[in-house]
Structures are given as structure tokens and as C-alpha cells.
# Entry
Amino acid sequence: MKRKATWYHAGCDVCVSAENGLVAALDPQKLDIDLVDLGRARTRIDEARRRGVKTLPALVVGDDVFHVNFGANLSDLG
Amino acid sequence: MKRKATWYHAGCDVCVSAENGLVAALDPQKLDIDLVDLGRARTRIDEARRRGVKTLPALVVGDDVFHVNFGANLSDLG
# Structure
């Protein structure tokens, strides 16, 4: 079954590197990935916070949050 | 082209969760993943350090190191 996932990022170098190296290698048959740039989609910052995101970039799959390296604190965005 | 990747972990809860939720969702057509439990394969701790791993679990793809959440410091293993 294909699961929904959300990749929250801030457009930073660390975010772009992780998106190119890790997110691009995810299996599209397993995950349906929504890419969200919180620097632009600022109305979704609260959504990310509620889902448990502390730092960016992060991949959220169901209730699981995977913080990947460190690009920025979510709290620095708003 | 299929790339080689190495998943370094320490068998910890955070490691297992990330392996099940993230590594299991990687595309086997894009990455050929070597799973390495550094708690057992202690001779590979130096290899992980040389490749830039600081904390576990971490996925290394080429020169890129993706630290996922925080399970343990590599320096705590040896």
C-alpha cells in the first residue's frame, strides 16, 4: 500500500542536498511524497510543528518524523 | 545507475524505527544498501568515522552522509 509522506524543508543547502540524495532515492511505489518549502508555505509551519517536526529538513510518514541532518530550527521560521 | 549506500546503525530503538520507516522505503532500483550494525561489526567503526558519520543511525551515499534523528554518538561506540 502506498503511504503518504511529507518532506518539510526550508530551501537551504542542507535541505537541497538531502532532497537530492535521500528523498530522490525513495520508492515512488511505496511513498507518495508532498514536498513543502516552509520558507514559502508559511501557513503550514504550524502543521509541521503539530506533527512533531523540530528541525528541517524532515520527512514525516504517518506518525514517524525523520529529521535529516540539520538545516534550520523550525522555531526560527515562525 | 544503481548506487551503493551504507546504513550504519547501532541496533537502538531510534535506529530500528528509522530503518523500518525510511530505509525500507528506499527504492532498491536506485540504491544497493548495505546494513551495518556497528554494535556487532565493530571493525567497521573507523570506516564509518572516515566517511563522516557522527551520530547513528546514518545513511551514507557516495560522499553524502545523512544523519537521521539521534540514536547514539559514534564516539560512544569506540
Notes: The first strand of chain A starts at residue 3 and ends at 9. Strands of chain A lie at 3-9, 31-37, 55-61, 64-73. The radius of gyration of chain A is 12 Å. Chain A has two helices and four strands.
